[in-house]
Amino acid sequence: MRFLFSLIMRTLSQFTFLLLFLFSCTTFTSTEAYDALDPNGNITIKWDIMSWTPDGYVAVVSIYNFQQYRHIEAPGWTLGWTWAKKEVIWSMVGGQTTEQGDCSRFKGNIPHCCKKKPSVVDLLPGTPYNQQIANCCKGGVISSLVQDPSKAVSAFQLSVGAAGTTNKTVRVPKNFTLKAPGPGYTCGPAKIVRPSKFFTADKRRVTQALMTWNVTCTYSQFLAQKTPTCCVSLSSFYNDTIVPCPTCTCGCRGNSTSSGNCVDPNAPHLASVVSSSGKNGLAPLVQCTSHMCPVRIHWHVKLNYREYWRVKVTITNFNYNMNYSQWNLVVQHPNFDNLTQTFSFNYKALTPYSVISK
Ligand SMILES: *[C@@H]1O[C@H](CO)[C@@H](O)[C@H](O)[C@H]1NC(C)=O
Ligand SMILES: *[C@@H]1O[C@H](CO)[C@@H](O)[C@H](O)[C@H]1NC(C)=O
Ligand SMILES: *[C@@H]1O[C@H](CO)[C@@H](O)[C@H](O)[C@H]1NC(C)=O
Ligand SMILES: *[C@@H]1O[C@H](CO)[C@@H](O)[C@H](O)[C@H]1NC(C)=O
Ligand SMILES: *[C@@H]1O[C@H](CO)[C@@H](O)[C@H](O)[C@H]1NC(C)=O
Ligand SMILES: *[C@@H]1O[C@H](CO)[C@@H](O)[C@H](O)[C@H]1NC(C)=O
Ligand SMILES: *[C@@H]1O[C@H](CO)[C@@H](O)[C@H](O)[C@H]1NC(C)=O
Ligand SMILES: *[C@@H]1O[C@H](CO)[C@@H](O)[C@H](O)[C@H]1NC(C)=O
């Protein structure tokens, strides 16, 4: 699968090829737990207790993606936590736990989940209306702020039993984990915050949660994967030489010590290899290339005039386990301040802070 688009930028001074090396996929391979291109980006999980019940409470849990460009794609998020005491989940709307656990201590009414460390996933699109709440049931897919702020939230409701029944006795869950879908996010402790306020549809009345706590999770590329997941190759109109992705950018071929498995596109059994490994959808199954990257970005300079230059960008997916439908590409380049025209894609500027464009 390939995507093509091109862009034209006005040049300030003489265009230099060196500038191109400012952005590369390895930009994100930092050991620091934040992303220089989106330093305030985070995912905030908000628990709003909406009512107390005889043995616990009903809460709406919302997952807000406050990241500029990093979205959560299929197969979606998995949210986990550790209950502080012996809490159970009686029922859920708009989400479900992946395992019920051991509910043998209950007779009659059996809870939805009795695990000490439940893992919750979103329901799929097409869930019956009586099992939905607002912002649920998108298969765990959450947009980023730049792509579509209205879809940057996901929510589910749960009824918790064997729990505190007042704001003094309730215990906040601990050790939140967020997989989206793989590793990469680290979540802080839950903090009790001012109760959320909700406006009625006509905006004439405000109601509020009985109690609210927030958990903030941040992304680290280093935690997610030690090697880059894409690479950049370059070419230009004035030179036939294509500068390819460096060999072994994302791993070495046939080297089992560094993520070595790949599939030869000419192999006779390709279809069956791909379909049998495509089930979990997480580990990349890459086509054999010298760079071994799941994604290659090719930057071709088509024109370079004193006033402007024009490039064509080709993105190639080498990962048989992914069908990217909501992709975005983040490019850091000083001339983006003066982007004059783009073709076949939507463009938005990220302006994290000024020092990056050296
Ligand atoms: C963008 O263009 C304007 C004039 O057209 C110039 O003053 C400015 O420095 C340029 N910015 C960059 C980053 O090239
Ligand atoms: C998370 O992001 C939101 C929106 O950018 C911001 O208001 C909030 O302060 C951030 N939280 C943390 C703990 O950084
Ligand atoms: C708990 O509820 C009382 C009123 O019932 C309120 O005054 C107090 O601020 C609440 N505490 C928290 C942490 O929400
Ligand atoms: C939370 O995680 C920390 C570190 O992984 C561990 O030491 C602690 O026991 C965990 N707490 C609970 C309640 O599971
Ligand atoms: C808690 O999260 C909500 C929603 O993300 C946000 O509006 C609120 O400001 C947060 N509160 C604090 C104290 O961070
Ligand atoms: C084309 O680029 C290659 C690699 O950068 C260089 O070795 C070669 O001299 C260039 N050829 C011309 C005609 O500029
Ligand atoms: C495999 O990778 C390791 C570490 O990257 C390297 O030391 C080793 O020489 C490689 N082996 C082969 C056969 O390429
Ligand atoms: C990607 O899409 C193709 C064609 O629609 C389909 O055959 C294939 O199973 C899909 N692969 C994955 C991993 O979703």
From TrEMBL:
<protein>
    <recommendedName>
        <fullName>COBRA C-terminal domain-containing protein</fullName>
    </recommendedName>
</protein>
<dbReference type="Pfam" id="PF25079">
    <property type="entry name" value="COB_C"/>
</dbReference>
<keyword id="KW-0732">Signal</keyword>
<dbReference type="InterPro" id="IPR056900">
    <property type="entry name" value="COB_C"/>
</dbReference>
<feature type="domain" description="COBRA C-terminal">
    <location>
        <begin position="229"/>
        <end position="351"/>
    </location>
</feature>
<dbReference type="Pfam" id="PF04833">
    <property type="entry name" value="COBRA"/>
</dbReference>
<keyword id="KW-0325">Glycoprotein</keyword>
<keyword id="KW-0336">GPI-anchor</keyword>
<comment type="similarity">
    <text>Belongs to the COBRA family.</text>
</comment>
<keyword id="KW-0472">Membrane</keyword>
<feature type="signal peptide">
    <location>
        <begin position="1"/>
        <end position="33"/>
    </location>
</feature>
<keyword id="KW-0449">Lipoprotein</keyword>
<dbReference type="InterPro" id="IPR006918">
    <property type="entry name" value="COBRA_pln"/>
</dbReference>
